[in-house]
Write a sequence for this structure.
């Protein structure tokens, strides 16, 4: 019996629906269930052919468990090694090298020193920073947000230099990005599963949370195909099995705003019934296919397929 396990936290609708959908297909020799962990011993298998990870980004113990499971032959969706190394600033840097439009972005040292450091720990950091160049590059208004993490936590809109310094003082030890504001005409949130299956969802982030998928715009067939190709390209390079890419269209040009989402929102109440049905069915089919394939996913960047012209 090949088991597909789902590792999850507070959420219920998506993991429970995927388990039910896989089991409803009555695939010979395949069973889906919640992952159950009562011990983790080094070098010992997990008992699962495939694990769909929805929570290890918040639980280091689970991340260690998944790396051991991977080592012992489990396919893990998403790659726990890659997400341990990934963050939003790197994603933007990579995008500039593979022809993906992204907002102008600078990374900033934390406002407060990290624990167990002192001013002497930053001998290589020039202070003050070249704020004039940074501000001229990014422009105002701008957004300031953590270089790692998600869920719209600790996100600030800053209107000028004084506003920036006031709000940056609130960020403590967080390492922040300062990012150009893209004033968009249309905005799309795009599921990508298996690096091939894409769902383009009109999304209005300026609406209240429960109305963000109630957008009044939709892409032309040509723009839809362009965005699908862009989403696939991003995920090929990053190596995510399951991700969302958020695209803001300014003057018709898609800008990738956020594309580091290893456990993207897939709650029925949040995304709506039609989107929920697509993501449940597509994930169920992909997980089943991975029990046969048995191969974990690495992105093209890790495979050293990028050539940089200096």
């Amino acid at each position: 019996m090949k088991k597909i396990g789902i590792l999850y936290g507070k959420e219920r609708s998506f993991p429970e629906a995927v388990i039910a959908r896989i089991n409803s297909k009555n695939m010979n020799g395949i069973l889906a269930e919640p992952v159950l962990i009562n011990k983790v011993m080094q070098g010992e298998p997990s008992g699962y052919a495939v694990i769909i990870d929805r929570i290890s980004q918040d639980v280091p113990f689970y991340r260690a468990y998944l790396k051991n499971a991977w080592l012992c032959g489990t396919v893990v969706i998403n790659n726990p090694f890659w997400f341990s190394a990934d963050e939003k600033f790197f994603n933007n840097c990579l995008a500039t090298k593979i022809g993906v439009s992204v907002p102008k972005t600078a990374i900033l040292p934390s406002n407060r020193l990290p624990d167990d450091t002192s001013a002497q720990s930053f001998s290589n950091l020039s202070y003050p920073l070249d704020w004039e160049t940074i501000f001229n590059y990014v422009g105002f208004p701008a957004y300031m947000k953590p270089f790692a993490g998600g869920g719209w936590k600790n996100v600030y809109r800053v209107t000028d230099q004084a506003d920036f310094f006031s709000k940056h003082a609130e960020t403590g030890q967080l390492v922040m990005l300062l990012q150009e504001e893209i004033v968009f005409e249309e905005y799309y949130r795009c599921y990508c599963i298996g690096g091939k299956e894409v769902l383009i969802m009109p999304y209005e982030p300026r609406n209240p949370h429960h109305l963000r998928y109630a957008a009044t715009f939709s892409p032309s067939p040509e723009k839809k195909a362009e965005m699908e190709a862009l989403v696939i390209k991003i995920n090929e390079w990053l190596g995510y099995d399951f991700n969302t890419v958020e695209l803001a269209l300014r003057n018709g040009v898609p800008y990738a705003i956020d594309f580091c989402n290893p456990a993207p929102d897939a709650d029925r109440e949040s995304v709506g019934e039609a989107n929920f049905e697509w993501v449940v069915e597509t994930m169920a089919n992909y997980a089943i296919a991975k029990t046969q394939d048995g191969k974990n996913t690495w992105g093209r960047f890790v495979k050293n397929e990028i050539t940089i012209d200096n």
About this structure: The chain has a mean pLDDT of 95. The CA atoms of residues 129 and 155 lie 22 Å apart. Residues 104-180 form a domain with the Dna Ligase; domain 1 fold (CATH 3.30.1490). Residues 273-293 form the longest helix (21 residues).
